Amino acid sequence: MSQPRRSPHDSYETETTDHQTETESILLKHLPRNPDLPSPLQRDAHLQFLIRNLIQGFPSRYISQDASQPWLLFWTLESFSVMGVALDPDNKQKAIDTIMACQHPDGGFGGGPGQAAHLLPTYAAVCALAIVGRPGPGGGWDQIDREKMYEFFLSVKQSDGAFLVAHHAEVDVRGTYCLLVTAHLLNMVTPELLEGVPAFIMSCQTYEGGFSSASQPYFSPEPEGPPTLLDSPRPPLGEAHGGYTFCSLASWVMLQPYLALQKPSLQRPSLNFKTLLRWLVQMQGSEIELGGFKGRTNKLVDGCYSWWVGGCFALLSSLGIVGAHSHDDNHESSTTHQEEEAWGDIDDSLWDRAALQRYILCAGQHPAGGLRDKPPKPADSYHTLYCLAGLSSAQHNVFLSSTRQDAIVRSWKTPPESTHEQLRRACFTHSLSWTEEEGTSRILGTPNNRMNATHPVFNLTMTHTEGIMAHFYKQTIPSRPKKT
After folding, report:
1. Is the C-alpha dihedral spanning 198, 199, 204, 205 positive or negative?
2. CA distance 357 to 159
3. Which of 96, 108, 190, 303 is the most exposed place for a label (fewest CB within 10 A)?
4. What is the pLDDT of residue 216?
């Protein structure tokens, strides 16, 4: 079997080309003899890795993650979920108690007990509670102070639609994503919260097509009072990055119900999907890189981008971008007629789902358990989840189903003391209309490699997403058809 071709360069050696050559040499050793029979998923080893961290405690090198305690729990709990494993009641309660100890008295969650409220650990805490929490005393769900959390959200909102990740902190589009997910799960979406957010998301798109962490607004000084925000110039000076791109695109998907309710006379922000898709496709590595994804141009492949970049294709499909995934023929996408015409010559297989699975199974698994960036790096909780979630996204076609959406709309009951019902109902039905397409799963290797499907926006299983949203929206969700 001939070796894959090395990445070309201009014969001018730099630190970047040296790292690329070294990485290719290492990955070459993990290339399977039969591309259709990669290394099997070492479930037991990965479960032992996760259990050891959860029960015995994380190794000392995790001290640097002291401000990310809800994240450590979320990465661990969702890794269990995507592999189809549930915790026992005692450990669920311990997790709930640990998470609730991080709730800030003025709203939101901090990175640990007594730490300042921050949008990112707030997302992690709420998603972890979606997995292990429950209604009632001590269950976590009813102990979330939603009123103070909403006040915290408004307190970090900026005049251009961006959000600070914490008081006296920076603007970061990851904070926008974390806030929107939390607001959707907990039934806290309002026009006041969403005003200006689409324009901010649009401003983060770079010339490459991907998204950066923020944009650079210009302000006009005023003789009295605060400066006035200018619509332009607003140069996209940031660097396109896989994590920021996923958060921007997922935020855009969540904003679709809000945008659909705006007056037609209002000028709607828009994204350049053609450059975005081109950039996403270019992030997938070549055969010698085993088909893994990189997070930035001219960087190395990394297992975590299996989710942050690989997960973007289902999001694009929900917006009507063909070639990302197949999608519901009856689904009315939000793309314009002109945009549809621009995609007429696009192939239906723009990314290699099998190759991504091959990278995760052959290079992402650590022999001692857990998953990693790439060999010879150690496993960690972060890469364990996002490799497994990326594996799931490569295996399953999860799409927005108009049939499922109609069923949810028909079952909607107006809750007592409802405010902004039209928007909240639209967000609820849109969020829960994601459905796994039957008979289209592509599992590379043995059936043991199969992951549970995960929600393309929230990165929770469908069961956990429906459970927490049914509680906070006070709805009974219609059952899904049984799989044959």
Report:
1. positive
2. 42
3. 190
4. 73
